Amino acid sequence: MNMFSTRKSEPPPPPAPARETQSTNGASVSSAGGGLLSRGVSIKGTVKFSNELLIDGEVEGEIDSSGSLTIGEHASIKGEIKSKSVKVRGTVEGDIFATERCELQAGCTLKGDIEAPRLVVDENATFLGSAKVTPKN
Questions:
Q1: How many of the other CB atoms lie within 10 Å of CB of 100?
Q2: Owning domain of residue 42
Q3: 104 with 127: CB under 8 angstroms?
Q4: Residue 22 falls within a domain, yes or no?
Q5: What's the pLDDT at 91?
Q6: What is the pTM of this model?
């Protein structure tokens, strides 16, 4: 055993701080980038957030946000969505109002209307409704 080694030991890097957000029902979600409502979670009521949220579970009710919403491929949403931008990969039954952009990706199903300044619809998306696309001036 060498007591007088010339090797310097490096201190461990400090842990990255995790951000914790509180939802209206008291549950907390810890994440580095944005919120996550994971697969298997079901919510009835209003969901509000300000930055980013990925929903891969079930929501029955209104989603109201000034941020970016991603609806995962396993998600099922029944209700109205108001957000800055919306990406749909799962199933939505309700109207979407986006202030910047709405994107319907391959494999998604939307039964409802869209109102957004920009709309992207993949050729493998199912969209049953009407779209009102009015670019911002």
A1: 13
A2: 34-133
A3: yes
A4: no
A5: 97
A6: 0.75
